[in-house]
Amino acid sequence: MTWFEALFVLVAGVGAGTINAVVGSGTLLTFPALLAVGIPPVLANVSNSVGLSPGTAAGAIGYRRELEGQRGRMIRLVPASLVGGVVGAVLLLTLPDSAFHAVVPVLILLGCVLVAFQPWLSKWISVPTHTHRGAWWVIPAVFLTGVYGGYFGAAQGVLLMAILGLGLDANLQRMNALKNVLATFVNTVAAILFVIVADVDWLAAALIAVGSTIGGFVGARYGRRLPPIALRCLIVVIGVVAIVTMLF
């Protein structure tokens, strides 16, 4: 990796950490960046998961004030995220590379669509209709999102925001804080598994880790001031680039 490529990956990490703290879908920045510097897709995905873990944790720490009073929710939902993250990581490691090549463009496209339609999702999830404990389907839905996050993770945050907002009674800022915690556990447990049993491009992972940690704190502090439409457009553009790169 050249110095320019290393800087490119680092900057992508900063952007991903910022976006993950505010919206989710930072993978749509870092994953194409790793592909662009010549890292094979599966190795890029593993290294990306390892690198983004500290940044996701930084975003969760930055939103710690919004987590006050949500201990019960975390106790109920974190185990579902942990188990889902392990299952998703195991699927990534056990399924053939051909399955990854076939599935990931679809997942990226799904992520782009979810991000593009986030204003409509926000309208749906802003209506509190359930008790403090939440709807019965929230835990299994969080588990399935954890599986998705452990396998790839693009737009994991958007999926979690939709699930939590529809199934729980709380405002969006508190849901975003809870989303950051759940995504942190998914990414961390998957990263630990990858470090133990998979190959990791440690330079790429380190660059993303440094960048995403900086971005996580920046996103938690300043992210609400950024125009949402600008973030959505950027993610969609990068996602389309990733799809084209993988297919052609």
From TrEMBL:
The chain crosses the membrane at residues 74-95, 102-121, 141-168, 180-197, 203-222, 229-247. It is found in: Cell membrane. Keywords: Cell membrane, Membrane, Transmembrane, Transmembrane helix, Transport. Its main location: membrane. It is a multi-pass membrane protein. PANTHER family: MEMBRANE TRANSPORTER PROTEIN YFCA-RELATED, TRANSMEMBRANE PROTEIN YFCA. Belongs to the 4-toluene sulfonate uptake permease (TSUP) (TC 2.A.102) family. This is Probable membrane transporter protein. The lineage of its organism: Bacteria, Bacillati, Actinomycetota, Actinomycetes, Propionibacteriales.
